[in-house]
Design goal:
globular; alpha/beta
C-alpha cells in the first residue's frame, strides 16, 4: 500500500522484517512522505527501476540478495539517489564499509523514529542546490554543475551521489580555503562537531576516486593536517 500524496519525495523502505517496515512506513507517512516497501533486495531493485525513489532505507541482513549486494547493484545500475543503511551492525568498520560502498548515511537499529525522520530530512536537503553563489566547478578535465546536478570528465558522465554534490557545494563556497571536518559534518550531515569524522574522510576518499584525484598527492581536494580538514583547489564560477 502506498500513500498517494506525491507532494513530498518517495521513500523506499527495504527490510525483511514486516514489523520494522510497518513502523517506519507509518512514521514517514505521518511526516508527509510517499512511502513504498520491499521485503528483499530483488524486490527493491524492481521497485527502484519503476519508481526511482528519492531515498532508500536499506537493511543489510536480508535473505537471497542482502543489503550490500543490493547497494552494489543499485550503484552499478546508475542509481544516484540517496541511500541510508539501517542495521544492527554499528561498529566503525561497518559504517566505513557502508559509506565506502555508496551509502549516504548509516543508522543503527533499533532507532528512535524521530531520529529516523531527522536523518531522512537532512539527507533529502542535500538534493537541493545552493540558492546562490558559484554553481560550476572546474577540476582539470572535470566539470561539475551544481545547479543541474551533472558532472562530466573529458565529455564523459561522472556519477556523483547527492552527498558528493553537497560536499562539493560546501567547497565551492570556500574555494582554496580550509574546510574543517567538523564544518563539513555540520553543513552536509547536520551533525555536531563531536560526531565521528570518519564519515567525512570516507566520502572524500570516494569522491577523490571518482575525480581520479590521487589521495597521496591530491591536486584538487587536498588534506590540511594542521587544520583538521580539506581544501578544494578547483575553479568556481556562475553557470
Amino acid at each position: 500500500m502506498t500513500n498517494r500524496n506525491a507532494t513530498k519525495p518517495t521513500i523506499l523502505i527495504v527490510d525483511d522484517d514486516e514489523a520494522i517496515r510497518s513502523a517506519f512506513a507509518l512514521a514517514l507517512r505521518g511526516a508527509g512522505y510517499r512511502v513504498m516497501v520491499a521485503g528483499d533486495g530483488l524486490e527493491a531493485l524492481e521497485v527502484t527501476r519503476r519508481e526511482n525513489p528519492a531515498l532508500i532505507l536499506l537493511d543489510l541482513e536480508m535473505p537471497v540478495v542482502n543489503g550490500w549486494q543490493t547497494l552494489e547493484r543499485l550503484r552499478k545500475n546508475g542509481f544516484t539517489q540517496s541511500v541510508i543503511i539501517l542495521t544492527g551492525h554499528t561498529l566503525v568498520e561497518d559504517r566505513v564499509k557502508g559509506l565506502s560502498a555508496g551509502a549516504d548515511d548509516y543508522l543503527g537499529k533499533p532507532c528512535d523514529l524521530r531520529e529516523l525522520i531527522a536523518r531522512v530530512q537532512t539527507v533529502l536537503r542535500r538534493s537541493q542546490p545552493a540558492p546562490s553563489g558559484p554553481t560550476v566547478i572546474h577540476l582539470g578535465l572535470t566539470t561539475v554543475d551544481l545547479k543541474n546536478r551533472t558532472a562530466t570528465k573529458a565529455g564523459l558522465a561522472v556519477g556523483l551521489t547527492r552527498t558528493e554534490y553537497a560536499i562539493l557545494e560546501v567547497f565551492a563556497r570556500h574555494p582554496g580555503e580550509l574546510v574543517t571536518r567538523a564544518a563539513m559534518l555540520e553543513n552536509v550531515w547536520g551533525y555536531s562537531g563531536e560526531a565521528n569524522t570518519r564519515t567525512v574522510d570516507t566520502h572524500i576518499w570516494r569522491l577523490r576516486q571518482k575525480l581520479d584525484d590521487n589521495a597521496v598527492a591530491s591536486q584538487w581536494i587536498q588534506t590540511v593536517p594542521a587544520g583538521d580538514g580539506y581544501r578544494m583547489m578547483g575553479k568556481v564560477a556562475e553557470a
